[in-house]
Structure formats: structure tokens, C-alpha cells
Amino acid sequence: MKPVTGGTALVVFCVVVSGAIAEEVSGREAFVPCRACHSLERNAGVMAGPSLSGLIGRAVGGDPQFQYSPVLRKAKDAGQVWTIRRLEEFLADPEGMFPGMWMSYPGIRDANERAALTQYIVSAGD
């Protein structure tokens, strides 16, 4: 087995870092249509959709500054909480998860794009 040289380690490091940056850019790009209604800032003010800041761990329908559709209020009353898995499933088929909600969004079919968007929301919205 050959020892790892400085040049090899640098190449490996650059590949890993560039992959992480590419995922972030992809998540940021996937979030562009979401920006029309949502913010990742806590005190974003009134928007068409709730702030997504601190979403993971929050009750579904749990932003007190937003008036949710009945189906999301019902999910909150049932004790549903946003997890990474629930967010990814929601992004795949929002209407399937919460039939009758007011948000009109078809979902993201591509699993990689969905994962990148989820990671972006989780990391940028804290």
C-alpha cells in the first residue's frame, strides 16, 4: 500500500469540498421558487407562506405568525412535528401528505434535488 502524499490528500479534500459546495448550490437553486412565499429568516414579516427558519422540530402548522389551512391545523392538533424525513416526504408530494392544503406546489420528483433542498432548508434556516 502506498502512502498518501500531500498532493493526493489535497485532491481528495478538494473533491469532497467541491461536492459539498455543489450540493449547497443545488439546494439554494431548488429553493428559488420557494422564495416567492417563504423565508428562511425568523422575523421575515408577513409573507404568503410561513417562515421555514427552525422548521425541524417545529409542529406542523406551528408558526404562530401564519394562518394555516384546516388540514395543517389538524396535523398540528394531532401532534405532528417536522422532521427531516417528513420534510423530504412532503417535498415529494405535498398534496398527497396534506390533501386540501392551500399551498399549490406539485412537489419535487428528483430524490437528489429533494435531498439538496431539504439540507439547504435545514442548514440555512437555523
Can you offer a commentary on this structure?
The protein is an all-alpha fold. Helix content is 48%, strand content 0%. The chain contains five helices and no strands. It has helices at residues 6-31, 70-77, 84-92, 94-97, 111-124. Helix 1 (6-31) crosses helix 5 (111-124) and helix 3 packs across helix 5 (111-124). The protein is globular. Residues 7-19 have low confidence and may be disordered.
Offer a concise description of the structure.
This protein is mainly alpha-helical. It has five helices and no strands.
The value of Rg in angstroms is 18 Å
Number of helices: 5
Order of helices and strands: HHHHH
Report the principal-axis shape.
Answer: globular
What order do the helices and strands come in, and which of them pair?
Blueprint: H1 6-31, H2 70-77, H3 84-92, H4 94-97, H5 111-124
Helix pairs in contact: 1-5, 3-5
Characteristic terms for this protein:
globular, mainly alpha, 48% helix, 126 residues
